[in-house]
Amino acid sequence: MKTRITQLFGIKYPIIQGGMQWLATAEFAAAVSNAGGLGIINATRFQDRAGLTAEIRRMKELTDKPFAVNISTLPHKDYKDNTDNYFQAVIEGGAPIVETSGRKPGEYIQLCHDHGIKIMHKVPAVRYAKSVERLGVDAVTIVGYECAGHPGMDDVSTMALIPKAQEELSIPVVAGGGIADSRGFVAALALGAEGVVMGTRFVATRECPVHDSFKRRLVETEEHGTMLVQRSLRNANRVCKNATAAKTLEMEQAGATLDELLPVISGKNQRRCYETGDVEGCLFPIGQCSGVIHEIKTVQELFDEIVSGSEKVLQRLRNGLG
Fold first, then answer.
1. Residues in CB range of 244: below 8 A, 6 or more apart
2. Tell me: the pLDDT tens digits for 161-171?
3. CA-CA distances (angstroms) from residue 271 to 2, 89, 96, 293, 312?
4. What does R_g of the chain's alpha carbons equal in angstroms?
5. Residues 99, 120: contact at Cβ < 8 Å?
6. pLDDT band at 48 (very low <50, low <70, confident <90, very high)
7. CA-to-CA distance for 305 and 151, rounded, in angstroms?
8. How far apart are the first and last CA of the chain?
């Protein structure tokens, strides 16, 4: 299976694991890379350069396949901004690929290229993708309204974004939002993407280091079981409908400030709940594709299903169009 994404990153299948804050450990990411995709370590799990450097080296012990490090370039109010240290850790640890999100990564693009590191940037709109293409990123991920976490403020679906991106960009495009199986994978490629990123689907895998109660909640959640919060902060966040999401929305409607919301929406709460299994005690980012996730699989089983299922989808189309 060859696309410009597989050739750029040296992977077997154009399937990328999402950044998945707090969950993207070396062990989990290695399972994705070993299955033929691109596993990603999340830098925000570490508060110092040494911790991330050690995690990158751990990743290289677990796989000889390509992998990436996710670095959010946004400032974070409830934990330290370590962006410079994270990039130095990537260089010291020898990670081959970086995925950035948030602010434009302009000052880091040449740094990465000087050290032979590929860099892709995640955005929620084509206009932002064109901007970072001009800066020199190697690829861009575009996430639609359906995605878990932050879909931007435009409320435009993946179905509308990817063809537009394919028309206006020359660098490879990765599609995210609403993709969880072989049907979504083939559809994304048909729309013009050269790879897909999945986060929600990877939560429901045996290797994902989240408490099983969150995995069960995800499998039980239908496509209408998510909601958007944090729109008042201009940082829309798609999450599972639970007690914390309802409280967040209620506070926003009452005019709460960021400082007032922070004790409820803090990522520190999320990290604690992911470990204890308190599915009501934090925001739980999942996408609308939850409606087609019916079981917890191993990462390898998921890849096998997508690859074999894609052939069946294509054959069905050939038969139907013949």
1. 264, 265, 269, 280, 281, 282, 283, 284
2. 999 999 999 99
3. 37, 22, 27, 23, 39
4. 19
5. yes
6. confident
7. 27
8. 23
pTM for this structure?
0.95
Report, in this order, helix, strand and coil percent for the chain, each rounded to 5: 50, 15, 35
Q: Give the pair of three-digit tokens for residue 45.
A: 């799990």
- Residue 103: CA count within 13 A, CB half-sphere: 10
Residue 3, judged by CB atoms within 10 A of its CB (0-12, 13-18, 19+), counts as middle
Predicted pLDDT of residue 105? 94
Helix, strand, or coil here: 53?
helix
Residues, the chain, total?
322
Looking at residue 80, its pLDDT comes to 54
CA distances from 67 to 10, 36, 96, 224, 315 (A): 10, 10, 7, 33, 32
Q: Where are the alpha helices (DSSP H) in 10-75?
A: 26-34, 49-62
Q: Give the burial class of 225: count Cβ atoms within 10 A of its Cβ; 0-12 exposed, 13-18 middle, 19 or more buried.
A: middle
Please give the Cα distance from 71 to 55 (Å, whole number): 14
CA distances in angstroms from 113 to 43, 87, 98, 120, 122, listed in the order given: 19, 12, 11, 12, 18
* Beta carbons within 8 Å of 271's beta carbon, 6+ residues apart: 22
The helix or strand, by DSSP H or E, that contains position 81, with its residue range, turns out to be none
Q: Is 26 left (phi over 0), alpha (psi -120 to 50) or beta?
A: alpha
- Distance CA(195)–CA(3), nearest Å, equals 7
